[in-house]
Design a protein that fits this description.
Layout: E1 9-13, H1 20-29, E2 33-38, E3 51-54, H2 60-67, E4 72-75, H3 87-108, E5 112-116, H4 126-142, E6 145-150, E7 153-155, H5 166-174, H6 176-184, E8 187-189, H7 190-202, E9 208-212, H8 213-222
Helix pairs in contact: 2-3, 3-4, 5-6, 7-8
Length: 223
Amino acid sequence: MAVASPARRIYLTGGTGYLGSRLIPLLVERGHHVRALARGSSPDRLPPGCESMIGDPLNGAILAEGMRGSDTVVQLVGVPKPAPWKGPQFRAVDLRSGRASIDAAKTAGVEHFVYVSVAQPAPIMKPYIDVRRECEDQLRASGLRATILRPWYILGPGHWWPLVLQPAYRLMELIPPTRDMALRLGLVSIHDMLMTLVWAVEHPPESVRVIEVPEIRRLGGAL
């Protein structure tokens, strides 16, 4: 990918997680300034090159103070390895952190909010989808310019088992009654997600846009 211009001033939550720890080096390499939030026990786990901020991702006042001077927020806090039985955790972590970050971004005058949601509708993971949909609704109501990414499952290190489902996905994509669902709930690679996140940061929308699985794949392959 070509070096980005102009450089963005990014505030990123979830910087030690599965996506954040891989995204930060890409953004820094492209000339962006990244300020990453970490809890007091984990600042040394942040990738080099970013400015570390110590704080609680559920504390709106701390978030707003850290976001001041940033033009972009990337919200990546969430319960690791989502599963149907983690409903209470989704509401305690994903929902509270999402709400706090959205309110803080509005208070701090941030221009663009990037949020990783989930593909929907889907026949499973209703508690997870409900929480992400609530955050999407709040983001739309906030008046912020926003990019909402909707992957279903992200293939990558430690997350390869769904590869066995690819033949079934290909078959479903060929059958008209199941084609739309297969595409909407398709698998994306960690590379596709990271490239799409970089593209989203560098191309703020005029209002709110939603990037679904087919476009995540397209952007991942184009960059």
